[in-house]
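Tokens in:
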């Protein structure tokens, strides 16, 4: 018998209960990580806060702030072991689709000049 075990990947809204795991990833991938307060403030402010999850394990997240005509992606992160598998791009596409649905005319993602990985990601 041949059984394929395929775990579905879920894109879902970030919940305060997710923050312990999100912070672990944040500290792993950023030189200047956000604090837990930055994340909880973003949830409270009603920003678009998303996580990527497989079988109960969060491996990516992103936060986007919407203004009337533009969207600003404040952060996007994929856990090291999950990078370069296309998940960052999928999350970015989700944000772009959401921003379009809200009639945003432009979308911004700030990247440090020294962050060569992220610059490759957005180029
Ligand atoms: C940047 C980041 C979100 C990319 O996520 P990812 O899942 O690894 O990226 P993907 O696999 O979806 O790759 C998408 C594209 O970016 C490119 N890319 C990804 N990482 C790269 C790297 N380190 N160097 C150069 N290009 C890279 C891929 O080649 C791919 O290009 P393609 O579409 O032409 O094939 C992830 O590396 C990360 O979390 N980095 C640390 C946090 C960070 O810098 N966030 C962004 C600034 S807020």
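Residues out:
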């Amino acid at each position: 018998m041949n059984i394929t075990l395929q775990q579905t990947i879920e894109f879902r809204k970030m919940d305060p209960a997710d923050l312990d795991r999100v912070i672990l990833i944040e500290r792993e991938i950023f030189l200047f990580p956000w604090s837990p307060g930055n994340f909880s403030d973003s949830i409270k402010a009603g920003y678009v806060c998303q996580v990527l999850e497989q079988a109960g394990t969060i491996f990516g997240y992103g936060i986007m702030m919407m203004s009337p005509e533009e969207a600003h992606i404040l952060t996007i992160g994929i856990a090291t072991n999950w990078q370069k598998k296309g998940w960052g791009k999928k999350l970015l596409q989700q944000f772009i689709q959401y921003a379009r649905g809200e009639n945003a005319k432009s979308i911004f993602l700030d990247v440090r000049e020294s962050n060569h990985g992220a610059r490759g990601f957005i180029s």
